[in-house]
Predict the 3D structure of the following.
Amino acid sequence: MNSSDIIKLKPIIRDYLSGDITQTQVIRKLKKQESDTWHFVMDDDRILFRNQNSKIVINTKVDSPFSTAKQVPVNYREINNESLNIIAETKLLIQDRLGNKKIITFSGTARRRFDEKKAKEVIKKFLNQISPDKYIVLTGGYHKGIPLIAAQVAKDNGFKTLAISPQVIKTLRGRKKLQDLYDLEIIEGEDWGEESFLLSGVSDILVIICGGFWTKLEYTYARKFKKKIFLIKNLGGFSEEEEEQGKDIFHISPLQIGGIRGKID
């Protein structure tokens, strides 16, 4: 983010911290200011602004949030020997704890509005094409949106569930609802996006439903790793907007999911 971006955002955040506007209103205002060069998320007691190179965290529980906010580098992993070794070691851990199975990952919208009923139907249809004996279901472990729905549906249908998340997820109050939802949780990195290389790296299949900045990052890693990717159409977000074509990229609508069994394995 550059200084002009920060100048535009300060009055909006001040209004929110002073109680002059609600959380819904501040999200709407920040969304209007959001651009291709930066992205924001709101978690418990903080607002995170981030791009491909740096981040700023605004702590909403301190008296002078702007005085403590500093722009610092992010740690999006490059694909090199170190990151490949982490992926290999994690695969061995998963195999030891959950069995030698393939991994299907559901990535997508976690914080913003979307058609949850349709998304749930999509996930159910996907899981109906595969067996719990052969697949583990992986998500980013967030307590809302696609990660939560996918883990719940998977658990209800007898699948082992796995979450790969950054350290910051442990600070979220909504984590309480995830008790007993995951058979294995793996922490990688400090903040959002720093776990994305690992989530995509251990996956065999990536199913993207809606999504935004972080979902796009996981998609980018999955492309580098040559993973099989399903982009779900007609539900909005990144999976609707992305048009890249490729041998292992499938653009499908919810109505087409019943006929994809041969494309999964």
User: Anything to note?
Assistant: The chain is about 40% helix and 20% strand. The chain has a mean pLDDT of 89. Residues 42 and 48 are 6 Å apart (CA to CA). The chain has two domains: 3-73, 81-264.
